[in-house]
Here is the input.
Amino acid sequence: MSGTSLDGVDLAHCTFTEEADIYSFTIGACETIAYPEVWLNRLMTLPNATAIEYAETHTAFGRYLGELTRYFINRYNLSTDFVSSHGHTIFHNPAKHYTSQIGEGAAIAAACGLPVVCDFRTGDVAAGGQGAPLVPVGDELLFAQYDYCLNLGGFANISMQVNDRRIAFDVSPANIVLNHYALRLGKKYDKNGEIAATGIIHNELLQTLNNLGYYNLKPPKSLGREWIEQEFLPLVTPYNISPGDALCTFCEHIALQITACLEKDQQKRMLVTGGGAVNTFLISRIA
Here is the structure.
């Protein structure tokens, strides 16, 4: 899969077993292949491309994923039943009943020669769901020992049991905003949150962000790049603060929004995944 943060394509060889309705898994070979500059630029600019460019990229990206899959299987000499591909999200607006991930399944299959399961989000959105977070059922079946499953990807999302029902929702922006300001300093991301740790919280901006209407909505709810561009970043521009202070303030904002979703109970356990899980400054603020 490929996340909003554009770190690269993640590949993993997973084996699932089920016995008496108990599911377990093992992860074998796994690798993240960073995007070459040409694909990084193409994916970043695609939301503003023409319909023809979108169609061409949908197929070309599928073939690229298929070629990476074939390389991965051959490199690790894997026995594989099928390929499961999320693709890369370009548009996501469930309020208007659409979501769009590129990486055509037929092109993946043609390039790697295996059956492909793909296009996960659209069915959920068509049925009135949010299409995100993607795998709350996986959290429930594979990580039942945790009370909360928090993913710190481009967006922070969480899943949990509430009244014997699994619920999941996007909590707030995460790496999509943090990386945006790290890039202003010539870095792809803020390693370990080191830049954020040197900054100062801008309290007025923090309060402005905490007052965004999204945070008052009840789940199910989800966020997309469009919301960041139209609702979130325009609130930051008038403050004209340094990237370091912006990163520090955003980490505090993320931590506050996440902890607002949690019961204050030290017996509860939370699994934290995603690139943000290794941002030690952000994790310390959540803690």
The two ends are 29 Å apart (CA to CA).
